[in-house]
Amino acid sequence: MIFIIFFLVAIVTVITLGVYYIPKILGYPKVAKYMTIIFVLCLVYLVGMAVFEERLFSKGDAKELVGDTKKIFEKRTGLSISNSISNIDVNDNYELMEGEFSIVFKTSESQIKHWLSGKPPWNNIKWHKGQIPHKLGASVKFNFADGVGLGIYNNGESIYLGDKDLVKLLNDTTNYYSYVEDCCPDQKGLRFHDGRLLILQPRTRMVYYSVWDF
Predict the structure, then answer these.
(1) Contact (Cβ atoms closer than 8 angstroms) between residue 149 and residue 166
(2) Which of 76, 86, 80, 75 minimizes the C-alpha distance to 118?
(3) Residues 196-207: pLDDT tens digits?
(4) Which of 20, 34, 165, 199 is the most interior residue, by most CB within 10 Å?
(5) Phi-psi region of 72 (alpha: psi -120 to 50; beta: other; left: phi over 0)
(6) What does the alpha-carbon distance between residue 108 and residue 86 come to, in Å, rounded to a whole number?
(7) d(CA 17, CA 23)
(8) Count of CB atoms within 10 A of residue 211's CB?
(9) 53 φ, ψ to 5°?
(10) Cβ distance 39 to 16 under 8 Å?
(11) How far apart are CA 50 and CA 20, in angstroms?
């Protein structure tokens, strides 16, 4: 994190100096002044984002995840893992500003029942059950080969299209899930572009966690 901040500061500082001195040398002092102000504002903005919006740079936590999936899962969801987990699959294609990061694993039925008896993540009041809402499900891929899209029947009903195994998971009525929109839930055009989803399946004992920003 500190390295990223210093890196951003260095880049913007160098560009700012170049923007200031080059127009000044060429005889445009006013241009140099205004361009310098713009780049300084950019510097303040980037550093602020790095400090106060840590998730932009650490949603993946790729290095930390190596050999410590439990710790990251607990950190992200607030759910404590007391039983063993297996079939662990971590996918991280989260690059600067956008992408998806996911953890998929298998655990015991008692572990899942314990979670379901308590409060779900992200300050949600209760666990949801059933098919994953279409716009929410279309945002995730987890560890499946391909993602899904949405098709619409003539009557306006939406359906999942794409990876058949992912479609099966998203349509499973035995799902228990919790989600949160990290940005703009009140703005129709921006909904579900930035969020987190956790799916628990007591029947298969599988756990699916994803965070994304597109």
Answers:
(1) no
(2) 80
(3) 999 999 999 999
(4) 199
(5) alpha
(6) 10
(7) 10
(8) 22
(9) -120, 60
(10) yes
(11) 25
Locus of tokens 């015991």: 108
Place of tokens 């699959």: 89
User: d(Cα 133, Cα 38) in Å, to the nearest integer?
Assistant: 42
The pLDDT tens digits for 116-151 are 999 999 999 999 999 999 989 999 999 999 989 889
Token digits of residue 151: 């098709």
Q: Which residues contact 39 (CB under 8 A, 6 or more apart)?
A: 12, 15, 16, 19
Q: What is the 3-state secondary structure (H, E, C) of the chain?
A: CHHHHHHHHHHHHHHHHHHHHHHHHCCCHHHHHHHHHHHHHHHHHHHHHHHHCCHHHHCCCHHHHCCCHHHHHHHHHCCCCCCCCEEEEEEECCECCEEEEEEEEECCHHHHHHHHCCCCCCCCCCCEECCCCHHHHCCCCCCCCCCEEEEECCCCCEEEEECHHHHHHHHCCCCEEEEEECCCCCCHHHCCCEEEEEEEECCCCEEEEEEEEC
